[in-house]
Amino acid sequence: MTDVRIDNNLGVLLKKLLKERSFSMRKLSELTEIDKATVSRIINGKRKANPEHLQKFADCLGVPIVELFVAAGFPIEPKQTKEYSDIHTSVYSIQNVLESSNLYDNKFSIASVEQQLANYKQYVQTEEGKDYILKSFDEKLRKVGSIGPFINRLKDMYEKFCLKKGTHLELILIGSALIYFIVPVDVIPDYIFPFGFIDDAMAIQIVSRLLQ
Length: 212
Known about the structure:
By secondary structure, this protein is an all-alpha fold.
């Protein structure tokens, strides 16, 4: 008797991404610290991925997590068509997962992240705020110990901030994103694993779009 297979859109997408990056399943297992047998079963449609798996795959493969959520069959609002940007789609996905996990009571929204960033814009213009970034960024980075576009973009921002590469307004925006990342208790507290850094990634995305 053959194994009962689930809808394998995620497996097809992961195979495509692995091929594009010349990654093996073993390599993906090593980078994500997910057991190789689990990775194999997910890719071959024999096991459903959970949100923690998807977050690690997204970080490792450098793709928006919403693409993996959709491929894995997580519920998405019907209205989420072309008029919504990736960032709005991500918010709906995050809300669904947080509510179903019972780990977080408050409503997650773009507005809540933007408000926190606005608060940090004031702080980053003080000497205390600038010193806080310079003294705390490397330590927070070590604690996170992650890879992928989210962290790489943060490193680029930190370098620009240190070298003062940018206009006064650009440096304020960059500084607000860096503080958001460093502070452990923000819109979604960092201790809520594996979702605690999703809002940090959202903050980086918001600031990156403003800089563009």
